[in-house]
Amino acid sequence: MTMVTASHTEALARLGYALSDGTRARILLALREAPAFPSDLASELGVSRQVMSNQLACLRGCGLVESAPEGRRTRYRLADAHLGATLGVLLELVLVVDPSCCAPEGCSCR
């Protein structure tokens, strides 16, 4: 069993923060399939390039994605293969949640 450290809990908090936003979660899931350019991700997810840029900067700052320049463009990918596998496991979870429980006005976890 792995000894849990402050680094572990900080990493989990960053992942939780990233997944707390639908657009960021969709970006991570798209990058789980394959690396991509921001403009392609923006088109695929139906968001503006500015929104995509902001969300990728956030994910990069959290250490979840990394960028690699390719000519005049920059391709993004998950920072670690374990993240892709972890997202796959999370997708397999089935949660039964009262929809009113997590509505912003009714959420007690904030």
TrEMBL record:
GO molecular function, one term: DNA binding
Gene Ontology biological-process annotations: response to cadmium ion; response to lead ion
Xref: Pfam families: HTH_5
Membrane-crossing residue ranges in chain numbering: none
Signal peptide (from-to): none
SUPFAM superfamilies documented for this protein: Winged helix' DNA-binding domain (SSF46785)
CDD domains per UniProt: HTH_ARSR
InterPro entries: ArsR-like_HTH (IPR011991), HTH_ArsR_DNA-bd_dom (IPR001845), HTH_Metal-responsive_Reg (IPR052543), WH-like_DNA-bd_sf (IPR036388), WH_DNA-bd_sf (IPR036390)
Residue ranges annotated for the HTH arsR-type domain, each copy included: 4-98
Annotated protein name in UniProt: ArsR family transcriptional regulator
Annotated source species: Jiangella ureilytica
Upper lineage: Bacteria, Bacillati, Actinomycetota, Actinomycetes, Jiangellales
